[in-house]
UniProtKB/TrEMBL annotation, chain A:
PANTHER family: CDK-ACTIVATING KINASE ASSEMBLY FACTOR MAT1 (PTHR12683:SF13). This is RNA polymerase II transcription factor B subunit 3. Keywords: Kinase, Metal-binding, Nucleus, Transferase, Zinc, Zinc-finger. Pfam families: MAT1, zf-C3HC4_5. SUPFAM superfamilies: RING/U-box. It comes from Aspergillus saccharolyticus JOP 1030-1. The lineage of its organism: Eukaryota, Fungi, Dikarya, Ascomycota, Pezizomycotina.
Automatic annotation (TrEMBL), chain B:
InterPro entries: CDK, CDK7, Kinase-like_dom_sf, Prot_kinase_dom, Protein_kinase_ATP_BS, Ser/Thr_kinase_AS. Keywords: ATP-binding, Kinase, Nucleotide-binding, Phosphoprotein, Serine/threonine-protein kinase, Transferase. It catalyses: L-seryl-[protein] + ATP = O-phospho-L-seryl-[protein] + ADP + H(+); L-threonyl-[protein] + ATP = O-phospho-L-threonyl-[protein] + ADP + H(+). One of its GO terms (molecular function) is RNA polymerase II CTD heptapeptide repeat kinase activity. Residues 22-48, 355-385 are annotated as: Disordered. The keyword ATP-binding applies. ATP binds at residues 68-76, 92-93. This is Putative serine/threonine protein kinase. Residues 27-38 have a biased composition (Low complexity). GO terms for cellular component: cytoplasm; transcription factor TFIIK complex. It comes from Aspergillus saccharolyticus JOP 1030-1. It comes from the Eukaryota. Residues 357-384 have a biased composition (Basic and acidic residues).
Length: 382, 404
């Protein structure tokens, strides 16, 4: 017997005794062992009940001072406790670092991420830099709560849709099989019926007609089978088209979900795609950003007394044509004040904050601004 | 702006330009065949040299590619910046017209004069002006490759809804409001003067009939605006009018967008008046004080008087606009210009904030081959209907004697 198997067999024997209460399988055939992922020490169900029923308590194994809770005890899946532990760690890390390939800029970034995740798992399994790694992981988890949730939800959805698709396909296959069976049955029955028909006709008819009747029977059969074949083709094509459209729909659903995800920037993972959240829609501005009736230096009144303009108010023809004195007032005042408050040197300074303009330049612009103001001031308002 | 000397050139041109400015005497002998055969240099007049030089600077900024369209009044070319082949422009070359032997045509002057002043997303941009050989005027205009609103209205394959109409009307109203805010009357608003840019923005084009608001007592011509879009006061021959003439045209465009056919399409001016009366009500001294005093007012048969149409008429006629939209349309199509909404009032209307929200301009319905249409639109002269069935009905504008 090879030594390895021997060792396993021995350990198997050891397993039959609870390390806490020392009761053995022999005395208690229903005995079940449980472990807690805090320390992975094994004990029997009755020990767990006995020690942890009244609340959290220390692990009864000598030298282990971990506080354990009853709720977290579970059955061991893998025989090797190290494998069990690694699987647990892996599951936990994968749940937190659940980024998907679509979220990365490049294949390279995705591969880097995978490597980084393996490194974290390995660190935790082998106990190197545990505190730092755990810290990183917790920080990442709290910072990226939303994207982690979203990815979890998506994974769950994918799993369920995959299952659905599988059952759907199975159902389709079953229907196809049934149809084929039915078809075969029909064919057989028809064949039988036509044979019987030929026989009865042969029995009833004259001996000279025998050959003709036989030929006729064969022809009918042939026609039927060819019609059936074309019908089958048609059904098959339809089903293929259906399957394709299903697949496409599933693909679309996937990409739509990707876009819905909004991920924050994480310090831990590099190379994530920048996700731009669309700006909230602004209310429609009919004026397109320009403020109507904005006048800096004057207010427009409804009426300015003038012997020049007053007769116009009485002129019915002009009134009927819609001539609007208000427009004239507005224009006249605007032209009178146009150019006021234009300080070219200020505008130039704003446009060119580096101040690269030389001394001569500033003098020139100042001169220009003075000129502009003076011309504006002398503008004839009429 | 058109002849700004501070424009940048590719290196080769810069070299030429500097050499000519330094040595004006060597100009003719040394270089630039283009100058030689087009502008025989006159050494006597130095001032002329400079203007020619500036003009050449602008002219050489652009390269004409292909002809987009030709009309009786202008030819439109597709062009691009010499420095940037991807930047397209439309170059509108005004033909030397037989009517205006002594100078430039009125339309061209108006177009340059007003487009130069206006810079707004909903108004076609005039980048530059230059003269080419034979002193032809060339306007370098914004390139608007997506055709016009008329094309979209007429194409039965294109479907659009209330939100799209609202988006288009919003852009039109903004453009018109900006013109009026700068005291400019457009006077030829109609669907085929509303061009569409590559990003879907509607742009007001063709300022061939534009003018600034008139001073008091000054007569303006009433022979403006394409007939179907002409307001009743112009049909009655009013010589003093205001910005609301453009609002009536806007209302007609609005109605046409909703119905997809011109709303009141008369064959003659008289027919147009009759159709307006039939559609909106007969103007009387009660609903429009002073209307009977207008020069071309025609007293209507008292048996034929149609009462002024109320809100329910507009609601019935234009169900797609909704009650608020019908209200806006009604305020734009009021017979009495004094009671009609101004452009600012139109934009302040509640319709813009009601559902449905205007479509985003990039999602608006579009038609692929609009370039030809642009060429066609820009060659037309103001006030013409270019529908072939109405070709004979189109009026030739007579500017002689008219002041504006």
């Amino acid at each position: 017997m090879p030594p390895a198997r021997d060792a396993m067999a021995n350990r198997g024997d050891d397993d039959e005794v609870c390390p806490v209460c020392k009761s053995s399988r022999y005395l208690n055939p229903d005995m079940q062992f449980l472990i807690n992922p805090e320390c992975y020490h094994k004990m029997c169900e009755s020990c767990v009940d006995r020690i942890f029923s009244s609340g959290p308590a220390n692990c009864p194994v000598a030298g282990c001072h971990k506080t354990l809770r009853k709720a977290r005890f579970r059955k061991q899946t893998f025989e090797d406790i190290n494998v069990e532990r690694e699987v647990d760690i892996r599951r936990r890390v994968m749940q937190i670092l659940n980024r998907r390939e679509e979220e990365f800029d490049s294949k390279r970034a995705w591969d880097d991420f995978l490597e980084q995740r393996e490194e974290i798992i390995a660190n935790l399994v082998h106990g190197t830099d545990v505190a730092k790694t755990e810290g990183d992981l917790q920080r990442y988890a709290s910072e990226n709560m939303r994207s982690i949730r979203a990815n979890q939800a998506r994974e769950a959805q994918e799993a369920s849709s995959f299952k659905e698709q599988q059952t759907h396909e199975q159902e389709l296959a079953r229907l196809r099989r049934e149809a084929a069976k039915q078809e075969y049955e029909n064919e057989r029955r028809e064949l039988q019926a036509s044979r019987e028909d030929v026989l009865t006709r042969l029995a009833a008819g004259r001996p000279g007609d025998a050959a003709a009747i036989a030929r006729e029977g064969k022809k009918v059969l042939l026609k039927k089978s060819s019609a059936r074949r074309s019908e089958e083709d048609r059904i098959r094509q339809k089903q293929a088209a259906l399957r394709n459209s299903d697949a496409r729909k599933a693909g679309q659903a996937g990409t739509a979900a990707d876009k819905a995800d909004a991920a924050g920037d994480s310090g831990l993972i590099k190379g994530l795609k920048k996700i731009v959240t669309p700006e909230p829609e602004k209310p429609y501005d009919p004026f397109g950003g320009i403020i109507p009736n904005k006048r800096d230096y004057y207010t427009l009144r409804d009426y300015y007394p003038s012997s020049y303009l007053d007769p116009l108010r009485q002129d019915t023809r002009m009134q009927a044509g819609g001539y609007d004195l208000q427009e004239y007032y507005s224009r006249t005042l605007m032209e009178a004040f146009a150019g006021l408050g234009c300080f070219i040197d200020e505008e130039v300074a704003q446009r060119d904050p580096a101040g690269s303009l030389g001394a001569s330049g500033s003098v020139a612009t100042q001169g220009a601004s003075l000129a502009a103001v003076s011309t504006a001031g002398t503008l004839d308002p009429s | 702006m058109a002849v700004s000397p501070s424009v940048l050139y590719p290196a080769s041109y810069e070299a030429k330009v500097t050499s000519t400015t330094i040595k004006p005497d060597a100009n003719s002998s040394e270089n630039s065949s283009y100058q030689q055969n087009q502008f025989p240099p006159s050494h006597s007049n130095n001032e002329r040299e400079i203007t020619e030089q500036l003009n050449d600077d602008v002219r050489l900024k652009y390269i004409k590619d292909k002809r987009l369209g030709e009309g009786t009044y202008a030819v439109v070319f597709l062009g691009h910046l010499r420095t940037k082949p991807a930047s397209f422009v439309a170059i509108k070359k005004i033909k030397v017209n037989a009517e205006y032997k002594d100078g430039l045509s009125m339309d061209a002057i108006r177009e340059v004069k007003y487009l130069q002043e206006l810079s707004h997303p909903n108004i076609i941009a005039l980048h530059d002006v230059f003269s080419s050989k034979d002193q032809n005027l060339n306007l370098v205009l914004e390139y608007l490759p997506r055709g016009d609103l008329e094309m979209l209205i007429k194409d039965t394959n294109i479907h659009y809804g209330a939100a799209d109409v609202k988006a288009w009307m919003g852009m039109l109203a903004r453009g018109v409001w900006f013109c009026h805010e700068n005291f400019i009357l457009h006077r030829d608003i109609k669907p085929n003067n509303l061009l569409i840019a590559a990003d879907g923005e509607v742009k007001l084009a063709d300022f061939g009939l534009a003018r600034s608001f008139a001073d008091p007592y000054l007569n303006m011509t009433h022979q403006v605006i394409t007939r179907w879009y002409r307001p009743p006061e112009l049909l009655f021959g009013a010589r003093q009018y205001s910005g609301v003439v453009d609002i009536w045209s806007m209302g007609m465009v609005f109605a046409e967008l909703l119905l997809r056919v011109p709303f009141v399409a008369g064959n003659t001016d008289l027919d147009q008046i009759a159709k307006i009366c039939e559609a909106f009500g007969t103007p009387t001294e009660d609903n429009w004080p002073g209307v009977t005093k207008l020069p071309n007012y025609l007293p209507t048969d008292s048996s034929h008087v149609v009462p002024l149409q109320g809100r329910d008429f507009f609601l019935r006629q234009f169900p797609t606009a909704g009650p608020v939209g019908a209200d806006l349309l009604m305020s734009m199509c009021t017979l009495d210009p004094k009671k009609r909404s101004t452009a600012c009032r139109v934009l302040q209307h509640g319709w813009w904030s009601t559902e449905p929200k205007p479509t985003d301009k990039k999602n608006l319905p579009r038609k692929p081959d609009g370039i030809e249409k642009m060429g066609h639109d820009l060659t037309r002269r103001g006030g013409e209907v270019d529908d072939t069935t109405f070709k004979n009905a189109a009026r030739q504008l007579n500017f002689s004697g008219a002041r504006g």
